[in-house]
Amino acid sequence: MTTSKRGDLFSPLCPTRQLLDRIGTKWTSLTVKVLAESTPGEVRFAELRRRIPGISQKMLSATLQSLVRDGLVARRVEPTVPPRVHYQLTALGLSLDGPLDALRTWAEEHMAAIESNNRRADQLPQEPEHPRQELE
Fold first, then answer.
1. I need a surface site. Which of 31, 62, 103, 112 has the fewest CB within 10 A?
2. Hey, is 44 helix, strand or coil?
3. What's this model's pTM, rounded to 2 decimal places?
4. CA torsion angle for 34, 36, 39, 41 (degrees, to 10)?
5. For residue 27, how many C-alpha atoms fall within 13 Å in the half-sphere facing its CB?
6. Rounded to whole angstroms, how far apart are CA atoms 129 and 8?
7. Helices 26-37 & 91-123, crossing angle to 10 degrees?
């Protein structure tokens, strides 16, 4: 039986924090979503790029490299000219879709309240973050 020790999320060196930094990006969330919708099939790079509006080729490549390195995505290359590269969620990657889906659902359910709060905050006079201290 293994016991896991909880990390210190406030420490930049905490492995859990580092993993959350990687999986908590919008591009990771969207990439996992597209791949999850295609499970058990594979998706080619160009198709991923088409299905994720706004992502650059460089950002998609970096996101996929990170997901492959973490074992969340499997990469398969066909030895053609040019090579055809296919991506698919691993079982570990598929297990991430549920928590990300819960977060997406939460965002959809609370977006109106958050937008309302933002509009209200934007109308209020801004207070300085660090009030000046009076000279004595």
1. 112
2. strand
3. 0.80
4. 30
5. 18
6. 27
7. 130
